[in-house]
Amino acid sequence: MSTSYLDTDDLGFYGAFGGAYVPELLRPNVEELEAAFNSYCFTETFENEYASLLKDFVGRPTPLYYAARLSEKYGMHIYLKREDLCHTGAHKVNNTVGQILLAKHMGKTDIIAETGAGQHGVATATVCALMGLNCIVYMGEKDIERQAPNVQRMKMLGAEVRPATSGSKTLKDATNEAIRHWINHPDSYYLIGSVVGPHPYPKIVAYFQSVISKEIEKQLTEKTGKGYPDKVVACVGGGSNAAGAFYHFFDTKSVELIAVEAAGLGIDSGKSAATSVLGTPGVLHGSLTLLMQDADGQVVEPHSISAGLDYPGIGPLHAHTIATGRTTAIAITDDEALQAALQLSKLEGIIPALESAHALAALDKLALRKDEVIVVNLSGRGDKDMNTYMEKFSSL
Ligand SMILES: *Cc1c(COP(=O)(O)O)cnc(C)c1O
Q1: Where would a tag sit more exposed on the chain, N or C end, judged by fewer CB atoms within 10 A?
Q2: Is the CB of 289 under 6 A from ligand 1?
Q3: Count H helices, E strands: the chain?
Q4: Does ligand 1 lie within 6 Å of residue 124's CB atom?
Q5: CATH architecture assigned to 21-54+92-200
Q6: Is the pTM of this model over 0.85?
């Protein structure tokens, strides 16, 4: 039997990580979801509809751009996978389009989601509007204040934004509220935004994001005559853009996979989100994975300048591939990411999202061989981060 890093066992484990830690009441929901995914998402009907929406609604394929000036600086061949050019400004919509088709096929009319910075909330509200489905997005009260433009976007798209008022009033509280809603309304569809949550979500989200590496393979073949690079670099919050960028290369051992986490103010500063270094095994959001927790098992509030990397856990697929050495994790500080954002802006005329800037900053940390081919997944555009850039670069 051939085994792949992407395979889970029957209980949804990637090696030691994963599974479905849900209340008994939700057991039928995750089983129904897995059955629907397996029976529907590999049919011609689904594939045609998904491909058509990715092309005409999302704007795929996204370019694989040869960054000539950046390449010259590092003495390498650097390609940027331009997920920043997707509709709504990031890769997240690849997943929400796929899941909304699945939800519709399952006869669901009420969609729920949780969001931290609001990016996944916007991507979910977008596809609910597209399909005419009801959308409720849970969001921490504190995040609602901090992320006003995304709250307004969700409202314009017809979604209801419900504040989570318990605990720290941030993402983990919004997640608790969403799960409570799901228990009380088991007919609703819970649309998860990264390769996290109970099995089968990590598998489903990774599959929907795998369009990224599928396109990279084809585009690299056209540009270099070889369908795989020496390295793929992607930032990791929960890990969906990384899972998508790595997907078709996991089992090609010569391709180095680099997952870039947010070190925040520094790994040992107490203000970090470098989960693979600081995390220990525990159950978060319905799966057993690496998470930042204190001695009592309480989740430690993460910190990163980029809202999308500010997550206390990491998807079980990444926990497994990092633990087994297939993937290399690197941590980048807030300041290093800011400098990388400025550098890309000036060298290539592309202002990246702060999350993506972490992946770019990793170029300074890698042991690079001359003339290597490196693909950096540019997960999103910088428009949403202009307030931070204005504050940090006010002297320009
Ligand atoms: C949400 C987000 C991320 C982090 O999420 P992953 O699931 O780790 O990909 C990274 N980049 C951008 C632009 C985002 O919006």
Answers
A1: N
A2: no
A3: 16, 14
A4: no
A5: 3-Layer(aba) Sandwich (3.40)
A6: yes
